[in-house]
UniProtKB/TrEMBL annotation, chain A:
Enzyme class: transferase
Known cofactor(s): (R)-lipoate
Keyword terms, alphabetized: Acyltransferase, Lipoyl, Transferase
GO MF, any single term: acetyltransferase activity
PANTHER family in the cross-refs: DIHYDROLIPOAMIDE ACETYLTRANSFERASE COMPONENT OF PYRUVATE DEHYDROGENASE COMPLEX, LIPOAMIDE ACYLTRANSFERASE COMPONENT OF BRANCHED-CHAIN ALPHA-KETO ACID DEHYDROGENASE COMPLEX, MITOCHONDRIAL
Protein name in UniProt: Dihydrolipoamide acetyltransferase component of pyruvate dehydrogenase complex
GO cellular component, one term: cytoplasm
TrEMBL record, chain B:
Gene Ontology molecular function: any one: branched-chain 2-oxo acid dehydrogenase activity
Database matches in SMART domains: Transket_pyr
Species, as recorded: Fontibacillus solani
Transketolase-like pyrimidine-binding domain: residues covered: 4-179
InterPro entries xref list: THDP-binding, Transketo_C/PFOR_II, Transketolase-like_Pyr-bd, Transketolase_C
Name of this protein: 2-oxoisovalerate dehydrogenase E1 component beta subunit
The protein's Enzyme Commission number: 1.2.4.4
Amino acid sequence: MSSNKQLIDVVMPQLAESLVSATIGKWLKKPGDAVEQYEPICEVITDKVNAEIPSTLDGVMGELLAEEGQEIQVGSIICRIETTVDAPAAGSAAIASSSTGTTAVDHGNAAGISQDVASRSRYSPAVQTLAAEHGLDLRTIQGTGLGGRITRKDVLTYLENGGSAGHPTSQAIAPSAPQAAPVSQPVSQAQAAPAVLNQAANEPVRHSGLHLTETPRIPTIEVEGGDRSEYFIDVTPIRNTIATRMRQSVSEIPHGWMMIEVDVTNLVQLRNKIKNEFKQKEGVNLTYLAFLMKAVVSAIKDYPIMNSVWGVDKIIVKRDINISLAVGTEDSVLTPVIKKADQKNIAGLAREIEELATKVRAGKLKLDDMQGGTFTINNTGSFGSILTQPIINYPQAAILTFESIVKRPVVINDMLAVRSMANLCLSLDHRILDGVICGRFMQRVKDNMESYSLDTQVY
Amino acid sequence: MPVMEYIDAIRLAMKEEMERDEDVFVLGEDVGVKGGVFTTTKGLQEQFGEERVIDTPLAESAIAGVAIGAAMVGMKPIAEMQYSDFMLPATNQIISEAAKIRYRSNNDWNCPLVVRAPIGGGIFGGLYHSQCAESIFFGTPGLKIVAPYSAYDAKGLLKAAVRDPDPVLFFEHKKCYKLIKEDVPEDDYIVPIGKANVIREGSDITVIGYSLPLHFAMQAAEELENEQGISAHILDLRTLQPLDRDAIIESTRKTGKVLIIHEDNKTGGVGAEVAAIISEECLFELDAPIQRLCGPDVPAMPISPPMEKFFMLNKDKVKEAMLQLALY
């Protein structure tokens, strides 16, 4: 293998929360095949979902370590992919990910060991017992523990070597790092650990304890994981997906944008009149969003081009109207799909919106809930926005946001009136859609929204 | 030697004991026709009949009470509590009657009873199907408590429990049922109650625990050995009451650094007693503060999957705790 080729292990991902293993269904790539990032490399079967495992990087498929039909533990290696990365960069990346990995579990329930960094002269009972038994002067022994602490093992190693401070033999954890002794700046354990390990391997080992009383040199530690002015947050798989999809959308799709305002006074009255009865009868909230969705779906039926995908040499218009609904959680946003939304009435949409939102917050979305969306609606008003410029949910043609409903003075027939107003914003794929068609579409949505009245049936 | 799952080993132990001794019988909710909610007793009623595999009403106090009465007149009942969470109505019977009958009658009576109950979470069972009940019974002299981690031990300890002349609580971890698969001999063997077992030899740190979390510790130990050269010594307590003091002390002396792990709450858990034994007996052998990694002190296992994940121990949490202790 040449120096700039590297074999990367691909492990069985955790496809669902409770999964301990999954079965390889079919290999889609054979050794020697070129593999692109995100390209499926194999199918897996679990008792919950059947899914494809995407490649995590570009490269060439190396050996397959799992056979079709074989059950593999989550986290076990299934194959290797050969990639051309220059070695040092990949090495440091690996270290970075491993060190963030250790800090990530910090919120566990372990009682943290006190992080005293000046532990050089604090001896544990075990160390004192051994020192007394063998008549040792502990000042002559090098400590490899936290903050330079002398561990029991240091003493045993010292004794094994016939009482000389140098040449620790096959010390398991860290050979010896006297310079790491009283470190004057507080360094967290997780950070200090790899640094001590790295340094110990490079530093020459002292042969006597004579110089230990010198002011210790403070080691230059390349600390992974931030400093006083910043700290790092792990990029979760979902964050990573959001980042990738957003970037793909923004870089591939030329976004156009427009906004209209809608008078929803009648809708507000209608909803106020029936919402309590609806809640009692159906057990779900009758939200404004359900009315908006109905209005949008009807408008899409009139302008089917809104429901399309750019296919480079053609425009693919989807016959089913499947509405992706952006649902935010504390740290992510997901777009579960309401399938065949055109075949549902307002009550049905309200029920489905509530079900999907609940699933998102409980982390119970299935793969199937996420697939097949053709047009996205985002209820940005729910977090108080009055104007947004949304990013299109790739590869759809447009995304519409429903902003806050605000009471405003409005001129009607040259008279001032107080009306409930809401903005609707639309981002559009300008390769497919232009201003005229979108203007008509938005006007139709507006008409639909404004034609709700106290007589409107939700069933 | 056949490879079998933890749950199969438990079933096999009951089957063998019922074949060996006519006095052994099983009772509990849905143990007969249905074969148990987890299929632990599947096939037993077909083989041994309705009189030796008894479907009971939904009344744990009655299950324990009937079993205690039968045991006192010479039968060898195996009472199943569907989940250890449901055991609480039976605590009065178990703690005040079964545990004390030998003492109270000055050795005239005894109570060779086994109570089997699945403990632990990780199956999205929420608060009524995920609790660890061991600390409720742990401080009761007169009871023996076992909690196997391996399928081999599950079979051997259950057979030992059936043959024991006194009441034994057998806590099986429901997440282990299908997770643990290993060689289990089909011959008649027992694993002695009261004996801990070293499941991994090592020299840097000692991990002491029981049941499911040891599975994580074994994986973590393997990784730490390969990645950092850290050598972990792991002791499976196997029996919680009485604790194997000698084994705990010996394992502590081996490294001077001890991490105790269990899924039950930290406060008042088995680990507290293990830590107390170590500090009573091993002060001058200790090289680091005794560490505990346990379930958090919250009232119950959450039903929400991310919250359950937070509550449960896993390989990464155990590995991190082991690493920190090794570096100390």
